[in-house]
Write a structure and sequence with these properties.
With about 350 residues, the protein is α/β, with parallel strands linked by helices. It contains 9 helices and 10 strands.
């Protein structure tokens, strides 16, 4: 499904003449549209939160959470998942057609921020007639959106489950943009950024994705009986599949947006109770940041609860082993009266 709007104003003063946000709904809105839950994806994923899956969860990344009698019970709730602004799975991003030129935006796509992303989601919800969210559940960079929602539209959400994330950029995204640009510019198809007319940057993207998946703990989650060669083959194939469909400019755009994300000074605006979940082997959002984040949340007066997952699967742990945190989420959501 697709939400469309016009003349979307960006935080930096820019303007998108045409805005599209791709989304899916799981379950049905009730008559009063008071049973909506929103979920958000990571930096390289799509809005397909349930259903068909691939090895790295780019589809069906919350399959174990969404459905009848699951944590996000579709017999009771309508779970809404949107592809974020700047991505390339149906929402407006660098690969979209610039109405002023009739060609892909590419490097001309304006810089976006997390406030822009959540305002786009807010527009989608308004279009659906949803005036309040029962919960916002999100992992990784999707969790950035959860924290941004909490300070931008504090009265709009009743509860938040934020997994493998933080209220500011802890990954040093700013240093990642020059590195991406350098690697892409060395690809034979780069063409000064206009690679759309030359093909894809699949080889370079595959290398980047393999490195990222290793950092996530992807290899560790594969079947233990597999040999080294088999694991490497699966890793390469999974990375290649993603590289053939993801837009490099989206990766740059979303990485650049991550570098500007920081709501720590606005934590006092948060109204919704928060369950904050980290994994003890996650290299991207390590559990060692949990104490500091919780201290800042509690100091700001936020009703915050912390849960730590013990798993060797790193950044994949909360999607691969939901049984290690879902019971805590059920207790949390029952306590705040939303489950």
């Amino acid at each position: 499904m697709l939400f469309k709007s016009e003349d979307f104003e960006l935080a930096n003063g820019g303007l998108l003449a045409e805005l599209e946000i791709a989304y899916e709904c799981y379950g049905q809105l009730n008559d009063h549209k008071t049973n909506a839950i929103m979920v958000s994806h990571g930096i390289t994923s799509s809005h397909i939160a349930a259903g068909e899956q691939t090895e790295d969860r780019r589809r069906g990344w919350y399959q174990e959470l969404i459905g009848p009698r699951k944590l996000l019970d579709t017999d009771r709730y309508c779970v809404i998942s949107s592809n974020c602004l700047g991505s390339c799975y149906g929402s407006t991003g660098p690969a979209s057609t610039n109405p002023a030129t009739g060609k892909p935006y590419g490097q001309d796509f304006p810089e976006i921020t997390y406030p822009d992303m959540v305002r786009a989601q807010h527009g989608l919800l308004q279009e659906l007639g949803v005036e309040h969210l029962t919960a916002y559940v999100a992992s990784s960079i999707g969790g950035f959106q959860a924290f941004q929602w909490a300070v931008t539209f504090p009265e709009y959400i009743s509860s938040i489950v934020a997994l493998d994330t933080a209220p500011k950029d802890t990954l040093d995204f700013g240093s990642g943009v020059p590195g991406l640009m350098d690697r892409f510019s060395k690809d034979p198809n780069w063409n000064n950024g206009d690679y759309y007319s030359k093909g894809s940057l699949a080889e370079t993207l595959t290398e980047i994705r393999m490195e990222t998946l290793r950092g996530y703990g992807f290899v560790d989650k594969l079947e233990p009986h597999l040999g080294v060669a088999e694991r490497e083959a699966i890793l390469a194939e999974t990375a290649r599949d993603w590289a053939l469909e993801f837009d490099p400019h989206s990766l740059i755009t979303l990485t650049r947006a991550g570098a500007t994300f920081n709501v720590e000074d606005d934590l006092g605006k948060i109204v919704a109770p928060i369950l904050y979940v980290l994994c003890n082997t996650d290299e991207w959002f390590p559990a060692r940041i949990g104490k500091d984040v919780m201290a800042k949340l509690l100091s700001a007066g936020v009703d915050a609860t912390y849960h730590e997952v013990d798993s060797p699967l790193g950044h994949f742990a909360t999607t691969e082993e939901p049984e290690k945190w879902v019971p805590a989420a059920e207790i949390f959501l029952n306590r705040v009266g939303k489950a």
